[in-house]
Amino acid sequence: MSEAIRDLGLLPPDKRKSVRDCLLAGQRQVNLPVLAIIIAGYAFPFLLLRFGSYPNRIDLGSVSGLAAIAYLILGPASIAWIWWSATVPKWRIWALRTVDDWAALEDAAVKSGLIWPRDWIFEKTEFKSAEQRTLETALLRARDNERQSPIPPSP
User: Fold this and answer.
1) Plot region of 119 (φ>0 → left; ψ -120 to 50 → alpha; else → beta)
2) pTM of this prediction?
3) pLDDT under 50 in the chain at which residues?
């Protein structure tokens, strides 16, 4: 394995994880919390209305009524999107270093809704530091080159 590849933190081919294992890790780290945020975020106000001391009707013409509508439309989904935007770049860097077949994982992750296709507009909403962006670009380049000319296993 070349020194440049080792500097990126790529595991040697014989130590890499399967596409399935990396995809499951991404679903657990990224999408499962997204689902929990959305469910909890929408269940919470209904539980307050049901069991709290709040009125059963909300005046839609009032400020609190408009705030309630805004929350129901934007609240949990926005928080879930922020979670996704912060965690998916970390998962992708880990996966790029870890998976045995990046092309297959990338395809499976797009199909399962874990990530967006490369250069898709929603991919631009990911929160990445300059260091993460540089590392991810180098890892993608290395893995794309690896697909074209596989690295022989280490002795």
Assistant:
1) left
2) 0.80
3) 1
